[in-house]
Backbone:
């Protein structure tokens, strides 16, 4: 594996490519962590979209695993939800299963694989090794999540309120808290690299 494409997980594995079992375990772990983060959901009275910790896990997972495995972990998460497993955020009005993907939060969920791909791609190129660039990598991934979520509310979910109203419902209530999550999450990756280096000394 080329050094520029080395993620912190493969570095912990000794700099070699991960074996199939290791890749599978890492993907499964991030998918399960995404499902666990969904259970920390706070419904908000002024929007159909709950506040969850999922975006932070999606971005960290992508950065730690790399583009391909990070995306795969989120595809696995979505597959589990589509199969009817209770992995989506608990909600008194939003159903579990595939119906969740056609509801108001569907755009965010469907954007998770692409967001993990983006943050993982940038991490593979070394942006996760310093705090400032890790923030940029994760903001790029977060932008993918918000773009998918807001566009979905604006143009797919009835009554299709349009872009301005979708921004009010799907971006404004969350952007400050999610940026704070990014600033916290971005600190994880340089710390993991530091531990990886220290562990080899």
Residues:
């Amino acid at each position: 594996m080329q050094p520029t494409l080395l993620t912190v997980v493969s570095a912990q594995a000794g700099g070699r490519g991960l074996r199939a079992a290791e890749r599978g375990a890492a993907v499964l772990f991030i998918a399960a962590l995404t499902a666990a983060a969904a259970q920390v959901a706070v419904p908000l009275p002024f929007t159909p979209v709950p506040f969850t910790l999922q975006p932070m896990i999606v971005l960290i997972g992508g950065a730690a695993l790399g583009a391909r495995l990070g995306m795969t972990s989120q595809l696995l998460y979505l597959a589990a939800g589509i199969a009817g497993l209770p992995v989506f955020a608990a909600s008194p009005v939003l159903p579990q299963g595939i119906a969740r993907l056609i509801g108001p939060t569907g755009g965010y969920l469907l954007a998770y694989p692409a967001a993990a791909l983006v943050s993982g791609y940038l991490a593979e190129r070394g942006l996760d090794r310093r705090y400032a660039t890790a923030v940029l990598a994760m903001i790029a991934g977060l932008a993918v999540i918000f773009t998918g979520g807001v566009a979905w509310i604006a143009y797919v979910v009835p009554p299709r309120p349009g872009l301005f109203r979708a921004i009010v419902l799907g971006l404004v209530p969350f952007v400050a808290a999610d940026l704070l999550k990014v600033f916290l999450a971005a600190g994880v990756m340089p710390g993991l690299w530091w531990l990886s280096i220290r562990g080899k000394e």
Observations:
- The mean pLDDT is 88.
